[in-house]
Amino acid sequence: MTTIRDVAKRAKVSVATVSRVLNQHPSVNPAIRDAVLAAIEALQYRPNPIARTLRTAKTRTLGLVLSNMRNADVVTAAIRGAEAAAREHGYALFVANAERDPALEERYLQWMLDRRVDGLLCNPRIGLERVRALSQQAGVPVVVFARPNATGVLPTAVLNFAAATEEALAHLLELGHRRMGTITDVSQSGLDPDVAWGVRFIRRLLEAHGCAGEPKYHLVVPSSAECSQRVQTLLSGPRPPTALFVTPLYLVPATIMGIRAAGAEVPGDVSLIGFGDSEWAQVVQPPVSVVAADVTAHLDAATRLLLRLIEQDSAPEAELEVVEHRARYLRRRSVAPPSSRDAGHPLEY
Questions:
Q1: Non-local CB neighbours of 339 within 8 Å, separated by 6+ positions
Q2: Could you tell me the pLDDT band of residue 346, with boundaries at 50, 70 and 90?
Q3: pTM of the model
Q4: If I label 120, which of 41, 51, 105, 216 is the partner at 20 to 30 A Cα–Cα?
Q5: DSSP characters for 125-170?
Q6: Which contiguous run of DSSP H or E holds residue 81?
Q7: Which range (25-29, 37-41, 145-149) has the least confidence?
């Protein structure tokens, strides 16, 4: 972590002089001020506005930066888990929504670190090396969550969907499904294939089993309204898919509306599996089969890992501890064998 002493050494001045430059003191010689500012830029030093005056103080606050809040059920569960663990240890929780914007996400991360939260939780879209650099500059531990595997860069809470996703596909194959499709929104279509709740991972599995089918089976939609329209079109056409994987979960209602608008039913004409869970997914008719993790428990564990790092006063780069949660495939009544007219060989396209 770059310190004020590093800046003073590079600029060949005293720490007090650097402090005066940072505080815009008028007595500093312009040439010296320029040398200090050049050193600050070269070292990428960012003074902490609170730590400058309270070097040893703890704010008893944690930051939580979410990549987006579109999926309300998941976000609520995540905040509930982080807030409960923080409150139990006497910490308050600040929450920010980056709205899928990497630039906004970095601003929120920097804002929280500048205001000296004692620790930070995030599932960043920006590079982990950049997050680590910000963490080291501020001297504040960061834990990343909802990752498919350990990062090797920062302490990590791993959320593993792979085995449950494979189980869901195996169930459909066992029932006789061969024409399968995927529905996702534009924010998730480009996720790394190793992110097992992402559509690229699902499509890779389908391809491995010879069940990816035609390109038209795989929809990427910008809104719920368009989701309904395109699902209706898909199922009204020739040789529609007999099963659909839908991620994120909030697209499931729109998918069901499109299915019904096409004169089809779940699961008689098309089986449905969502990613994530909600009370409404359990009570809608038919109840929706899902691949889901306990997000509240996941954020609780991530927050407790962060608190351990804070209490141990660990340097951000000193610990790369990992905690892990696994999703489960929850079978409900939205999955059934394909109708006799649709059952067929995997290569029958």
A1: 242, 268, 269
A2: very low
A3: 0.76
A4: 41
A5: SS-HHHHHHHHHHHT--EEEEEESS--SSS-EEEEE-HHHHHHHHH
A6: helix 72-88
A7: 25-29
